[in-house]
């Protein structure tokens, strides 16, 4: 996927690729860096494609009555130390973190 304005998100792209590389086999050692650090295999079912469109849930505490329950944003990575994802709003150029997206 090619996202408009991707030139400004090199940092997000590097962090996302680094997260993925920590979960694939190291050719030198033949093992996963994650397995080396944590002693178990990682669950890779949560991995997503950088730049993919996603519908992100807007919590009821944030939205007003009659407002949409979800927004279409662009996936740009994984939140550090949390089980949530990072999304970019092309309209406002803001980054949002959410665990509720499809």
Automatic annotation (TrEMBL):
* Record key words, sorted: DNA integration, DNA recombination, DNA-directed DNA polymerase, Endonuclease, Hydrolase, Magnesium, Metal-binding, Nuclease, Nucleotidyltransferase, RNA-directed DNA polymerase, Transferase
Q: What does the entry give for GO biological process? A: DNA integration; DNA recombination
InterPro entries cross-referenced by the UniProt entry = Retrotran_Ty1/copia-like (IPR039537), SH3_retrovirus (IPR057670)
Tagged with keyword Hydrolase: yes
Return any one Pfam family short name. SH3_retrovirus
A molecular function annotated in GO for this UniProt entry is: metal ion binding
Record keywords: Nucleotidyltransferase included?
Answer: yes
Start and end of every Retroviral polymerase SH3-like domain? 53-100
The record, for PANTHER family, names:
TRANSPOSASE, PUTATIVE-RELATED, TRANSPOSON TY4-P GAG-POL POLYPROTEIN
Q: What is this protein called?
A: Retroviral polymerase SH3-like domain-containing protein
Q: Which organism is it from?
A: Micrurus spixii
* Source taxonomy: Eukaryota, Metazoa, Chordata, Craniata, Vertebrata
